[in-house]
Predict the 3D structure of the following.
Amino acid sequence: MLLALPFWYHVMFAMIFGTIWGSFIAALCSRWPRGERVSDGRSHCDDCQTPLGAKDLVPILSYLWLRGKCRHCGHSIGISVLYIELASAAIGLFAVLFLSGGQALAAAVFGWLLLPLVILDYQKLWLPNQLVLALAIAGVCAGAFLTPEINWLDRILGGIFGFLALEAIRQAFRKMRQVEGMGGGDPKLFGAIGLWLGWQGLPMTLLLATLFGFLCIALAFALSRKSPQQLPFGAYMGMAAFSIVLLA
Ligand SMILES: [Zn+2]
């Protein structure tokens, strides 16, 4: 029934749900690394601990009319909250613009599950197992809506080969260089992506992720004359996988 609604309803629904989801993800990504749980009580200011009211919790708009500051203590709310909400809205928007029906919905779910992984890897070089597992389970349940041309065998092979390929590279790198070149979460994430895209989607994901990596190094070098020490390769893989889904 939902799918029979006019196109503009899809756009609106995708963007509204996207911002709400983004606001939840922003809270998750700021609280989880500090050891707090998102479900612990109401949202509160990180600085003065004043609980936030309904007016403070409207995604995007709250940030804009509070000008990025807590109304009680003036503590600045990180701009990343706004970026995450906008990115999440954009995921929903792109999904319905580029795809349609169940495929658009599955693409949005794929993007929304990748989003916290991209953020946490980018900010903390951390790909929590729970989030990778959620992405993998969703891939088993909804992957067929996103990539209907991929059969079950190819999907399962994608999961297995995705994990094994990056794990082999990771181990080889560690043996050769005696340092950790890649986080342990990267192979798991690549496997989870394989469950969504099938093994056929993996080479392109890797290629595009490497390209994003080079672009980020070039950009960082241009801005600060330093190349970054550690690269959030999982974040690049997440962005690559979502781009492939839209453009395929
Ligand atoms: Zn405050």
Q: What stands out?
A: The chain has two domains: 1-98, 128-248. The CA atoms of residues 26 and 81 lie 5 Å apart. Residues 45, 47-48, 50, 70, 72-73, 75 surround zinc ion (CB under 6 Å). The chain has nine helices and no strands.
